[in-house]
Amino acid sequence: MQAIKDFLTSQMGNDSPDWQQQGSGLLTWSVFSIYRATLWTAGTLELHENQPGNNAFALQFEYLRNVSADYIIDASQREMLRIASATDTAIAQWTDQLRTIIPDAGRGDLLWILFLPEQQEVRFYNDEQLLDSMVSSGFPRAFADIWFHQQCHSPRLRNQLLGEA
């Protein structure tokens, strides 16, 4: 666990919070477990109007089966279109960017998403290797909605991540 805290601290520089694991859970589809997600944050993740209010938080995904990048991106796009308050045009632009960043995920792969809402930035990592970042007004909120919105696809996973299950 200390290695994870050290990794997150190294990504934040001098202003790094004291990272801790808040919750963890499985995303399942039918009888298949897709990934284990773990929420890392400084203190407890606070939701204000269903949105994370923290300056920084991270989601770690340990994939339990092979999942194509196209599947990950298409599912993300569907969820943002369904629940995010962003325009369809913005979501289409973000989806195009995601297609250049998100890799195929294999069983055992660790993918990270570091949310920096104040900077309007989201960083993507494969294991601890930075893949790329996206800086766009509204994107951190719309992307976080996939896991934290009241109407998200997997309320059970949401509750587990928030430590409420």
Describe the protein's topology.
Elements: H1 2-12, E1 19-29, E2 32-42, E3 47-48, E4 51-52, E5 57-63, H2 69-83, H3 88-99, E6 110-116, E7 121-126, E8 129-135, H4 139-148, H5 155-161
Helix pairs in contact: 2-3, 2-4
List descriptors:
alpha+beta; 8 strands; two-stranded antiparallel sheet; 165 residues; six-stranded antiparallel sheet; globular
Structural overview:
- The protein has 165 residues and is of the alpha+beta class.
- The chain has a single domain, classed as Chalcone isomerase (3-Layer(bba) Sandwich), CATH 3.50.70.10.
- Helices cover 33% and strands 32% of the residues.
- It is built from five helices and eight strands; from the N terminus they run αβββββααβββαα.
- The strands form two sheets. The chain has a six-stranded antiparallel beta sheet with strand order 1-2-5-6-7-8. The chain has a two-stranded antiparallel ribbon with strand order 3-4.
- A hairpin with a 2-residue loop joins β7 and β8.
- 30% of the residues are buried.
- The model has no long low-confidence stretch (mean pLDDT 89).
Q: Tell me the series of helices and strands, N- to C-terminal.
A: HEEEEEHHEEEHH
Question: In percent, how much strand structure appears in the residues?
Answer: 25-35%
Given helix and strand content, the structural type is alpha+beta
From the coordinates shown, what is the CATH architecture? Answer: 3-Layer(bba) Sandwich
Distance between the termini: 22 Å
How many domains? The number is 1
Biggest sheet, in brief? 6 strands, antiparallel
- pLDDT < 50 stretches: none
Roughly how much helix do the residues carry, as a percent range? 25-40%
Please name the CATH topology: Chalcone isomerase
Strand order of the largest sheet: 1-2-5-6-7-8
Radius of gyration: 15 Å
| Mass-distribution shape | globular
**In the CATH hierarchy, what is the class?**
Alpha Beta
